């Protein structure tokens, strides 16, 4: 399975460790997302940034839809159908988007339609949106 990680909060007031982790994940701005394989290294990174982002397991159908709409090349132009298929196959094989040549590994999303329910300063258990979601597909669809 693949994990979708979406940065929600900005840069003000973050500790250096958290900022560095976001930079390693290439998530420099809010509403940027990346697809990560389930390995212990990335699980540790997700655990470090969980209070400032949304994450969860994403379905294969939504991976195809998300990459079809939001995947860009490094020069900023939309990716061709061939590159999208290569990226989908790489993700299903457990690789990262950066492993596919000439593709930008960051997916830039829009703020969600009708906003986040419960606010961006609370975790899921407190009624907000931060942390692990079982319904990450619904949030990602709102942000495409």
Question: Could you describe the 3D structure shown?
Answer:
The chain has 144 residues and is α+β, with helices and mostly antiparallel strands. It contains 5 helices and 5 strands. The chain has a single domain, classed as Ribosomal Protein L30, Chain: A (2-Layer Sandwich). The longest helix has 12 residues.
Attribute tags:
single chain; 144 residues; alpha+beta; Ribosomal Protein L30, Chain: A; globular
Number of strands: 5
- Give the count of helical stretches: 5
Text of the CATH class = Alpha Beta
Average pLDDT rating: 89
Q: SS-based structural class? A: alpha+beta
Q: Describe the largest sheet.
A: 5 strands, mixed
Strand percentage: 15-25%
CATH topology type: Ribosomal Protein L30, Chain: A
Helicity, as a percent range: 25-40%
- CATH homologous superfamily classification: Ribosomal protein L30/L7
Q: How many domains would you count in the coordinates?
A: 1
Short structural description:
With 144 residues, the chain is of the alpha+beta class. Helices cover 35% and strands 15% of the residues. It has 5 helices and 5 strands.
List the helices and strands and how they pair.
Elements: E1 2-7, H1 16-24, E2 32-37, H2 40-49, E3 53-58, H3 60-70, H4 81-92, E4 107-108, E5 131-132, H5 136-143
Parallel strand pairs: 3-5
Antiparallel strand pairs: 1-2, 1-3, 2-4
Helix pairs in contact: 3-4
